[in-house]
Structures are given as C-alpha cells and as structure tokens.
C-alpha cells in the first residue's frame, strides 16, 4: 500500500511539472498560427556506467511528433530571447533491447532559443525540454532483474538539442538536430542509474496560419533593472536506498538565497541550505552511528548559483559545499538543476533534482517566496 501511494504521488508531481510550463507559453501565441513537425531519430545509448553495458544491444531509433508555437515579440520576454519557438512533443524510442529495457515514450514541453539572427530562412536553436517518460520494461525482481538502470515505469525526461530549420517554402520546412536525452526517476524507486541517449534527427514540418512570421509592430526590448532578489525556499523529496523495493525515506531542505539580475536572461547568486534526510539517518544507524539528536543528521551547506530566465520560468544550477555534517558522511559537495516557476510576483513553485556530482539523490518539490 505504501509503495502504491508513493507511485501515485510521483505520477502527480511529474505531471504537475509538465503542465505548469505550458500556460505561460500558450497564452502568448495565436491558436491559428502553428507548425506540425514529424521527425525520425537515430542514435545510441551512452554507457555512462560500466554496470549497464549488458543492457546496450544495438542502435536505437524512433519518431517524434511536435506541435510548434512561434513568437513575434508580442511579449517582452520574446524579444529578449530572440523570438523563440516553443511547443509540445511526443517521442517514441525503440531501445534495441525489448526484453530488458523495452521502449521509451515521452511527453514534454520545450523551448527553442534562437542562436542566429532574425529574418533568415535557415534558423539555428538551442532546444531545452523537460517532461515525463514511460519505460515499458523497468526493473522487476522476478521477471526483469537484469535492468539495473530504470526502476519505475514513470520517469523524469530531459532533452537538450542543437536544432535547425530551413524553410523550403512558405508552407514547408526541413528540421534537423543532434541532442542528448536523459531519463530517470531521481531515486523515487531504485535501481536508478538512468539512461542517457544521443540521437540525430531529421524531419519535415508544415506551417499553419501565418506563412511569413513577422515581428509584431509594438515589439520592444524591455529596460533592464539590475537588483538583488532575496528569497527563501522550503522543499521535500523522497527516495529509496540502494536496495531495490526498499522503503521510501523523506528528505527536507530549507534554503535562503540571494540572486542578482546580471541581464534580462541571467542571475547569479549565493545561498545557505539546511538539509535533513531520513535516508541519511538510516545509513548512519546501519553503521552504528548515533542519530539521537537532530545535529547528528543535519547538513548545512553554502552554495553558488546561476539561473537562466524565460518569462516566469527559471532554470537554476547550484554548486555547493557542506560546511557542517556528521563526520561519518563522505559526500562534501552537492549540486542542483531543475525548474522554478513564478506563480505570482512573489510565490515560487520548485521542481529540482538534488545530486552529488553525477549521482542523483532525489527530486525536490516545494514552494518559496521572493521578497
């Protein structure tokens, strides 16, 4: 029963992260102006750990269907980011090992950030996508014990891609790209080594509505106001320990942050964090270390941070160091990447991945307040 409840919670919060990114974009685009693109993908699974080599049986391939919105500068953030595209994609990948890892199906919103100048037939983009993925053959102790990479059907999905589009005519365009994809569940259910995939893609798209997208007449670069942004965040997460099918353990984090807006797109900052994890307590007890007091389990860290901004959405990247923790704990550095969304002028919704170098610890979910 406990595992079933946590599975439902994991599914809910993953869908929440997916959906909370769509309204901010959709409200800025005409319903009658969009592009439908179909892509073919071909590539391979990256052997990021020697222990997953047995899962890699050959080249992978699949297809992707994308609903693309275009922008003309109607909102200030569109001008700041060079009139980007954004949309919603469905991806299906055959992973060349149907008996042990099966197939991947993903649904994710994304944004194409413009890399070359406006008003060109050939456009180059950096594509950033975050959503959910279903793995058809996760680990099972009885029927699929060899899959030591993915422990659950539902997983987080991240796609980073250098992409391009060439207008063959006012109605048709040719799309291509090369990218990296990651799928894992953030230790919600072990095993959780995750899958990293590299693919190239080629596809064709058809333009509906405005065939010749022009800049809006009232588009203008907004004035930059450089200032400090103090905030506090309270988040939680849950994870399994290394042994599959074990109990879930809660973790909590309270942070104070101070960012400075260096440009329209970026902020730099610092902060302090207080981390308490029941998984840490369990590990210490397993090593016969006393955990009677909170200070025996508490970690205190300082960090440096960077945040990339797209309208109400920010993508934080943190690098931190524990200045206080139990002497029996070996991890000294922590890291973070994910998404934050400004629900209001002051209230922040947080969905981030907390890691120690390349090892994912758990997903963090919570709220914050920016002063």
Question: Care to give the gist of this entry?
Answer:
The chain is built from four helices and 16 strands. With 371 residues, it is mostly beta strands.
How are the elements arranged and paired?
Elements: H1 2-20, H2 22-26, E1 34-46, E2 60-70, H3 76-80, E3 85-94, E4 103-114, E5 122-135, E6 154-167, E7 172-184, E8 195-208, E9 228-240, E10 248-261, E11 266-277, H4 278-286, E12 299-310, E13 313-324, E14 333-342, E15 347-356, E16 359-370
Task: Explain how this protein is built.
The protein is mainly beta. The protein has 2 domains: 2-208, Porin; 228-370, Porin (Beta Barrel), CATH 2.40.160. The chain has 4 helices and 16 strands. The chain has helices at 2-20, 22-26, 76-80, 278-286, and strands at residues 34-46, 60-70, 85-94, 103-114, 122-135, 154-167, 172-184, 195-208, 228-240, 248-261, 266-277, 299-310, 313-324, 333-342, 347-356, 359-370. The strands form 2 sheets. Strands 1-2-3-4-5-6-7-8 form an 8-stranded antiparallel beta barrel.
């Amino acid at each position: 029963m406990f595992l079933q409840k946590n599975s439902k919670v994991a599914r809910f919060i993953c869908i929440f992260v997916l959906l909370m990114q769509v309204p901010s974009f959709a409200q800025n685009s005409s319903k009658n102006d969009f592009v439908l693109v179909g892509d073919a993908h071909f590539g391979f699974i990256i052997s990021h750990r020697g222990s997953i080599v047995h899962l890699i049986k050959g080249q992978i391939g699949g297809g992707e269907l994308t609903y693309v919105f275009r922008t003309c500068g109607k909102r200030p953030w569109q001008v700041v980011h060079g009139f980007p595209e954004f949309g919603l994609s469905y991806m299906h990948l055959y992973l060349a090992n149907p008996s042990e890892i099966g197939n991947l199906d993903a649904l994710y919103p994304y944004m194409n950030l413009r890399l070359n100048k406006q008003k060109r037939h050939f456009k180059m983009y950096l594509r950033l996508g975050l959503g959910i993925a279903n793995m058809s053959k996760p680990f099972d102790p009885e029927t699929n014990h060899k899959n030591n990479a993915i422990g659950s059907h539902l997983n987080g999905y991240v796609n980073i891609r250098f992409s391009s589009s060439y207008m063959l005519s006012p109605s048709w365009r040719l799309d291509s790209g090369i990218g990296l994809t990651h799928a894992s569940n953030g230790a919600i259910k072990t095993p959780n080594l995750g899958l990293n995939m590299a693919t190239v893609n080629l596809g064709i798209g058809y333009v509906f509505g405005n065939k010749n997208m022009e800049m809006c007449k009232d588009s203008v670069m907004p004035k930059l106001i450089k200032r400090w942004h103090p905030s506090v965040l309270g988040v939680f997460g849950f994870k399994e320990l290394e042994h599959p099918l074990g109990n879930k353990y809660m973790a909590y984090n309270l942070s104070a942050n101070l960012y400075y807006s260096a440009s329209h797109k970026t902020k730099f900052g610092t902060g302090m964090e207080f981390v308490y994890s029941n998984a840490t307590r369990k590990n210490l007890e397993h090593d016969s270390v006393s955990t009677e007091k909170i200070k025996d389990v508490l970690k205190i860290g300082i960090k440096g941070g960077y945040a990339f901004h797209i309208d109400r959405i920010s993508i934080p990247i943190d690098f931190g160091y524990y200045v206080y923790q139990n002497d029996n704990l070996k991890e000294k550095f922590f890291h973070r990447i994910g998404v934050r969304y400004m629900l209001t002028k002051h209230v922040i919704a947080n969905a981030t991945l907390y890691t120690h170098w390349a090892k994912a610890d758990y997903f963090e979910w919570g709220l914050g307040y920016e002063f």
